[in-house]
Design a protein that fits this description.
The protein is mainly α and 208 residues long. The chain is 71% helix and 0% strand. α4 packs parallel to α6 (85-93), α6 (85-93) runs antiparallel to α7 and α7 (95-118) packs across α10.
């Protein structure tokens, strides 16, 4: 967030952040590090073009891998992607398909975060050390996948077999862990409902 604000944010706070965030990051991202670069090579130009494509065909998009041909026809510059995965998906597959994919991934992440939050509360008396180590591993998986996700806001790792495979393996691991311990998530939901019922009975005086 700080890097993005230092790169594209309004003047209020931007100059202060640029004193903290290294110039290499915000200068490269905002392309101020390369003032002589042609306009079509700027990320902002590519993002604006992808968003214009999305607005033109928001439901179905322009078809997979059509951003490259359309951008080259418009600007004369070849780029394999717009350096932003969500924008590429909305431009090529449409907003509904993009939201579906992001929703499926987001559901896995949400379950993993919820599981991480209740992990200590359900730790067994025996094997507590191993249980704590498992929590640290789950946290590490979340941080790693979160890093891959954020990176896709500035690039598209889909076309890098190494990073792409790593990201899908992390997501598969998170999905497997949350499925394995799905009973803990159900237990959390049951406890919340039970607490809510008790609170309601106390407020209404209907409790026994």
């Amino acid at each position: 967030g700080s890097v993005l604000w230092a790169s594209f944010g309004p003047p209020l706070g931007r100059e202060w952040l640029r004193e903290i965030v290294p110039y290499y990051f915000w200068g490269r991202l905002s392309d101020q590090m390369y003032p002589d670069r042609p306009l079509p090579m700027l990320r902002r130009t590519q993002w604006e073009f992808a968003w214009n494509l999305t607005q033109a065909h928001p439901w179905t998009g322009w078809g997979l891998r059509n951003f490259t041909a359309l951008y080259e026809a418009q600007t004369g510059f070849w780029f394999g992607h717009p350096h932003n995965l969500p924008l590429m998906l909305t431009a090529e597959t449409g907003i509904p398909a993009t939201l579906l994919l992001l929703g499926l991934v987001g559901a896995v992440l949400a379950r993993a975060v919820l599981l991480l939050g209740i992990w200590s509360a359900v730790a067994p008396t025996k094997g507590g050390v191993e249980w704590h180590q498992d929590k640290i591993m789950l946290f590490a998986y979340l941080v790693a996948f979160g890093g891959c996700t954020l990176f896709n806001l500035l690039d598209v790792t889909l076309f890098d077999p190494r990073v792409n495979t790593f990201g899908w393996l992390l997501l598969a691991a998170l999905s497997g862990v949350t499925y394995r311990y799905r009973t803990l998530l159900l237990w959390r939901t049951f406890k919340r409902r039970q607490k809510g019922r008790r609170d309601h009975e106390c407020l209404t005086g209907t409790g026994k």
